[in-house]
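Lab meeting, item 3. Inverse folding demo.
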């Protein structure tokens, strides 16, 4: 067994053990949180170049939870077509692809966060998970640092 040997994970097989971690590409995103041609080309190149698994960068579950204005979004159905293209282009090269779901936390200096606000964010993660499935991704990763 080595880096280039296949690995079975649940319902799919990685052609090798090279995993591209979620690296945020703010420099090539548009200002409206949608996938653009440059980002799609970036993921196609990574899939074509032989990665065994790709984890797509922090994709925000709420418009008010972004790290930056041009962060990828998944808080509305309008993001499904672009994100679906990323899943499709990775699958074209037999590369499983996972979407990292993200919320940047609270911008205010709060000592106590209301339970309703936390519940709302959790609901947004659930909604984003369902959209991720509709997009054709093979799984999710929850970004929990914020």
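The presenter then showed the designed sequence:
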């Amino acid at each position: 067994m080595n880096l280039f040997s296949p690995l079975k994970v649940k319902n799919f097989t990685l052609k090798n053990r090279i995993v591209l971690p979620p690296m945020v590409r703010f420099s090539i995103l548009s200002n409206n949180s949608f996938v653009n041609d440059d980002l799609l080309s970036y993921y196609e190149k990574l899939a074509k170049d032989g990665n065994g698994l790709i984890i797509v960068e922090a994709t925000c579950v709420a418009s008010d939870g972004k790290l930056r204005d041009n962060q990828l979004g998944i808080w509305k159905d309008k993001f499904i077509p672009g994100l679906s293209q990323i899943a499709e282009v990775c699958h074209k090269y037999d590369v499983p692809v996972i979407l990292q779901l993200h919320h940047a936390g609270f911008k205010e200096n709060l000592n106590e966060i209301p339970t309703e606000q936390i519940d709302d964010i959790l609901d947004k993660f659930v909604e984003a998970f369902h959209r991720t499935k509709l997009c054709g991704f093979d799984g999710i990763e929850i970004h929990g640092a914020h």
